[in-house]
Amino acid sequence: MNTPNTLNTPRNSNDAKSPGGGASTLSGRLDQAQPYALGLFRIVVGLLFACHGAASLFGVLGGAMGGGTVPAGTWPSWYAAVIQLGAGGLVLAGLGTRSAAFLASGSMAYAYFKVHQPESLFPLQNGGETAALFCWAFALLVFTGPGALALDRLFGSRVGAGSTTRRTSEEQAAPVTA
Question: Would you say residue 22 has pLDDT above 50?
């Protein structure tokens, strides 16, 4: 019997009959939307994180811990608020997303293990759900990148286009010797 090897056979992206192939299937449509969903995820997480920092530093949106601001230079709350505002803003804009997300994830891991975990083991019991969720959301962005709608992509395309070297007409006319 002569059956094609489906693992090594390239699929036609417009073939609606093949499983998972083409934009006409639900899976294909979801795959096409993935960069945009990731971009929206990045924007929402960055905005929420930056709002935490702005509340602590400037007293907006209810302020820090029910009102007011964090005194400048206090460890670790003021530094955490600066990281929240700065890294959250960068992630929101999609600038240096992986680096900013790495810093933000680390700061939330520190917050969870230093502030919340000593109270109790589980986040639901120690009030650390937000820190744990932010930590893992930013860790995901470290590995996935910014997705669509990021300024990284805008500047990355210029750098990529400018980094290619073109041969001059003299170099093209010169014979190649081995």
Answer: yes
